[in-house]
Amino acid sequence: MKVGIVGLPNAGKSTLFNALTQGGADTAPYGFTTIEPNVAIAAVPDERLTTLADTLDASARVPATIEFNDIAGLVRGASEGEGLGNQFLAAIRETDAICHVVRCHGEPNVPHPDGRIDPIADIETIEAELLLADLEQVGRRLERVTKKAKSGDPEAIADRDWLTAVEAALGAGEPVRSIPPPAAAPGAARSLGALTSAPVLYVANVEEGAVEVPAEVAAHAERAGAVAIAVSARIEEELAELDPPEAAEMRAELGIEASGLERLVRAAYELLDLITFFTADRETEAWARSLRRGSSAADAAEAIHTDLRRDFVRAEVIGWRDLVDAASWAAARERALLRTEGRDYVVADGDVVLVKT
Ligand code: GDP
Q1: How many Å lie between the centroid of ligand 1 and the Cα of residue 11?
Q2: Could you tell me the CA-to-CA distances from 299 to 66, 115, 127, 289, 309 in Å, in that order?
Q3: 20-78 pLDDT, tens digit each
Q4: How many whole angstroms separate alpha carbon 258 and alpha carbon 278?
Q5: What is the pLDDT of the chain when averaged over all its residues?
Q6: Protein residues whose CB sits closer than 6 Å to any atom of ligand 1
Q7: Phi and psi for 313 in degrees, rounded to 5?
Q8: Cβ contact 2:69 at 8 Å
Q9: Burial letters 173-204, b for 16+ CB under 10 A, else e
């Protein structure tokens, strides 16, 4: 699962990304690692994993992760090839969710590309580029699909009708995600590869010491059906360099409750509509793993190991809290707390799953 970080130049994307990357060194196991200069893997903080691993005396604990991609180069005119233009647009197409960093702080030493601080105008600049790029893409696709629809192919007809609705929405300034993809043309959304189909999380990069999302940004997010969080990228970068106890002290002084990075990672996790299930037993490691909400036990097996879907016979399932209360697998079995489930069982957030082959 990939989250793309976008925003105007100087919005604070790299600062936030650096904070995500540096935070890892000292806070393992909830670490962050950089795999490419602009790609970081962030661990999803989850106290349930710690409790579970302690209870079962697991030899290691491995958190669920999300990939963050720092996508630089979006400037006014990107949809027409300005800045990094197409390269940047291609990077966005590969993401499952967008984290939109919006400059809300007024630091005079940080130049703004348009020479003024106006979070809503900035959001609109970015979103207009994405909409324009999508509009162009829809036009091209519509031409091709319309030809195919003329032959009477029902899938092409559904695709064409959807694209027509999408074109109208984009023309009215609405994102592709506002038009549900057609059931009769399952590949339509993927073939379009829109930039405005992924869900968005707004990150208001606020003044040092501020904790609230500015009202106008909160209102914009609400209208868009999106979540907004307030973070000071600069403070998070500074905090990420401190030892955890020092960081906690500084947070308390500043009145920032949870780590901004943790809030960001959690919000991204929810945005992706992910749930967590655990795998754990005494001899091995305790893992938290992510799954799309609504996934089956067979999907969970595949998330553990690709071959496990094929070899799946049944799963033993227990809620993490029940297992912790029982204190051991043996006790949980004795109390008949383990359920046997088939491959179609819909995994619940917090399930501990043992796949039997
Ligand atoms: P990007 O172009 O979006 O990646 O922006 P950067 O992360 O490189 O930030 C541009 C400049 O703004 C840098 O000099 C940062 O130190 C500064 N900056 C970023 N976030 C903040 C913040 O929260 N407060 C202040 N005062 N400056 C910030």
Answers
A1: 6
A2: 18, 50, 34, 11, 7
A3: 877 543 333 344 455 566 888 888 888 899 999 999 888 888 999 888 888 876 767 76
A4: 24
A5: 88
A6: 7, 9-15, 105, 107, 110, 205, 232-234
A7: -110, -50
A8: yes
A9: eebbbbbebbeebeebbeebbbbbbbbbbbbb
Phi, psi for residue 288 in degrees, rounded to 5? -105, 135
For 61, the token pair is: 């604990």
- State pLDDT tens for residues 293-335: 999 999 999 999 988 999 999 999 999 999 999 999 899 999 9
Note the pTM of the prediction, 2 decimals: 0.86
Give φ, ψ of 40 to 5 degrees.
-130, 145
Which pLDDT tens digit goes with each residue over 250-287? 888 887 777 788 889 889 998 999 999 999 865 678 99
Identify whether 244 is preceded by a cis peptide bond (ω within 30 of 0).
no
Return the closest-CA partner of residue 301 out of 292, 287, 312: 312
Q: Kindly state the tokens that stand for 179.
A: 């038009």
Q: Output the CA–CA distances (angstroms, integers) from residue 73 to 3, 6, 41, 63, in the order listed.
A: 16, 9, 21, 31
Q: Residue 203: what residue type?
A: V
Alpha-carbon span 44 to 58, nearest angstrom: 19
Which mutation among 5, 6, 15 tests ligand 1's pocket best, with the greatest number of atoms within 8 A of CB? Answer: 15
